[in-house]
Design a protein that fits this description.
The complex is a heterodimer of chains A (518) and B (67). Chain A has 518 residues and is mainly alpha-helical. In chain A, 70% of the residues lie in helices and 6% in strands. In chain A, the strands form four sheets. A two-stranded antiparallel ribbon of chain A has the order 1-2. The longest helix of chain A is centred in the first third of the chain and has 39 residues. By secondary structure, chain B is an all-alpha fold. Chain B has one domain. Chain B contains three helices and no strands. Chain B starts with a helix and ends with a helix. Classes of the chains: A mainly alpha (518), B mainly alpha (67). The interface between A and B is large, with 48 and 35 residues.
């Protein structure tokens, strides 16, 4: 039976996944338009490049508008459904979101207007600058929300203020330049570029299939395939970096990627497997009903050391003294102690017990030795204090395991796809093979599936946490009626679906019309 | 003043001349109205009380965090 927490999660997942459909294309298509417009001017204002640019800009505009509408509802939900989380993360989350909204969005919106309304009204250079600034503005929006999300996975640059009961930013640069934020940013931007490249290539392939606007299609594929090969390799590279970070900072999530129950040295990588649905932490069933593994590769991918130990769920839940891994039950005790101090402090404030207040303020004061020790030994496990059982730290394994394989498998497919496209273009035979055109067209939904799978890995994999180790999802909810959340879930699902269908209808119509010459 | 007027009419004429996006923007504005006026008013009535000061707010959220 679904409860409030499940419906709230489902609503956020629904709105986030819809939002990402539009944002991933916007991130990359802006740059493809800017590159095409640059080529247009460099080729002495070649009208064919202008019509190509304007065609893709039209699709960019349609997609951009819907993306904005879906994004607003996400920010709205932090206040309505996740008020405890919103209060707890205080400055940390609010600041990047505010910067995203004010700075980047206004920059995008201003220059988007010049990009659309300004053809033949402003100078060529100013128009081109506006197009590039629109593309950069989209990326600048993305930076801030990705920094906020990275902080949820790896909370740095903050201290918990006992008196205000909020996490407060103490180091802006640690937050912005956190290793997780940097990798997440590049991985997401490159995913957007890859999405746009596949989108442009696929639609252009449709024109080749129909044997119309062939020159436009070839020009578009030329730009998109170069963007695509760079982006697909960059996605793989940053994905590897991200996996190394997850292995260090979120070992349970990493164990879920691979469905590792028993830790091992020189751990094997499971290329693919069929999970045994009867397997739990508490029985000796086989993990897989069939699998394909590569020896020692997982240890190498996790720690760049083929002999390294990769912990499994058993090590992380029950602990492994030999490997210096603390079990979840011990973390729960420490977390409960930290929560108890906050409770005692609250009682002391209400009863005006100055002695107890000062005692506990001392514990939370990280400028003292006692405070640092309390933080390292107890407060760091604050979130564990909410759990009722140690194996709650394990996220939904099946969803994470299979989504990871979909993401990586399709990511590798796109590298080979763009190598093939570039080779066929070089040989000047891309137009010859209908089967290639069909493959490029059906790759469009694949790229969306792949990038959604990536977010499932990232966000389902971090369960049960909203802030890793500090605040679980169960403690982040608002006190609202679950009937409200259920009702609004279905209203949002309907509205967003209508919006998606409307966008697709308008896009298909514009694609059928094709590029127009001035 | 002339510059501001120019910018204003740049946007107005741009939206007027828009062919493709008008339908979509109308749909988006309708959706935003449904979300922020109807849904917000009818469904998302917060049970969070109003606070007279920051100290009371902190007491409330510490209770939320520790219960």
């Amino acid at each position: 039976m679904f409860e409030l927490i499940d419906w709230s999660r489902a609503q956020f997942a629904l709105t986030a996944m819809y939002h990402w459909i539009f944002v991933s294309l916007t991130l990359g298509l802006g740059f493809i338009c800017a590159i095409m417009e640059t080529i247009y001017l460099r080729k002495g204002k070649d009208p064919k490049w202008k019509s190509a640019t304007k065609f893709w800009m039209k699709l960019f505009a349609i997609n951009f508008a819907v993306g904005v509408a879906t994004g607003i509802i996400l920010e709205f939900q932090f206040g309505t459904n996740w008020s405890n989380y919103s209060y707890f993360v205080g400055d940390i989350f609010g600041a990047p979101l505010a910067i995203e909204g004010m700075f980047a969005f206004f920059m995008e919106s201003t220059f988007v207007a010049v990009m659309y309304f300004g053809w033949d009204k402003v100078s060529d250079r100013f128009h081109l600058t506006a197009t590039w600034l629109t593309a950069f503005g989209v990326v600048l929006s993305a930076i801030w929300i990705l920094i906020a999300n990275a902080w949820m996975q790896y909370p740095v640059g903050m201290e918990f203020n006992l008196q205000t009961a909020r996490s407060e930013m103490v180091d802006f640069f640690a937050l912005v330049f956190s290793e997780v934020a940097i990798v997440k940013f590049w991985h997401s931007i490159m995913t957007g570029s890859l999405t746009a490249a596949v989108f442009v290539t696929g639609i252009s392939a449709w024109f080749l299939l129909k044997r119309r606007d062939v020159d436009f299609a070839n020009k578009s594929i030329k730009v998109a395939s170069i963007v695509g090969i760079i982006a697909s390799i960059a996605v793989a590279y940053t994905g590897d970096k991200s996996a190394v970070q997850v292995a260090s900072h979120q070992p349970v999530k990493f164990a879920a990627f691979e469905a590792i129950y028993e830790g091992a040295e020189s751990a094997d990588l499971t290329l693919f497997g069929f999970l045994n649905s009867d397997k739990t932490l508490h029985n000796d069933e086989e993990v897989f009903n069939g699998e394909w593994k590569v020896e020692s590769l997982l240890s190498f991918l996790a720690f760049h050391d083929m002999g390294s130990f990769v912990p499994g769920f058993e090590d992380l839940v029950y602990g492994n003294e030999e490997r210096g891994i603390m079990g979840a039950d011990e973390k729960m005790e420490r977390g409960q102690f930290a929560i108890e101090q906050v409770r005692r402090y609250n009682q002391a404030v209400k009863s005006n017990d100055l002695e107890t207040k000062n005692e506990i303020i001392g514990l939370f004061d990280r400028s003292t030795e006692e405070g640092m020790a309390f933080h390292d030994e107890y407060f760091s496990y604050f979130g564990y204090g909410y759990l009722t059982s140690p194996d709650e730290i394990i996220p939904p394994i099946g969803l994470v395991f299979y989504s990871f394989r979909v993401m990586v498998g399709l990511g590798l497919y796109f590298i080979f796809m763009f190598i093939a496209v570039l080779w066929l273009q070089y040989k000047n035979i891309l137009g010859k093979y209908k089967v290639v055109h069909y493959i490029l067209i059906i790759s469009i939904p694949f790229v969306y599936i792949s990038s959604q799978a990536g977010w499932i890995v990232s966000e389902v994999g971090r369960q049960p946490w909203t802030v890793q180790d500090l605040l679980p999802v169960s403690a982040s909810l608002s006190s609202i009626n679950s009937v409200n959340v259920i009702t609004t879930f279905f209203i949002f699902a309907t509205l967003f679906t209508i919006l998606l269908i409307a966008e697709l209808k308008i896009m298909f119509k514009q694609i059928k019309i094709g590029p127009q010459e001035d | 003043m002339g510059l501001l007027k120019g910018i204003f009419y740049f946007y107005v004429n741009g939206f007027r001349e828009m062919k493709v996006g008008k339908q979509l923007w109308l749909l988006i504005l309708l959706k935003l109205f449904i979300m922020f006026v109807i849904i917000k008013l009818l469904f998302f009535r917060s049970k969070t009380p109003n606070f007279d000061n920051k100290s009371d707010k902190a007491i409330y959220y510490r209770e939320q965090l520790t219960n």
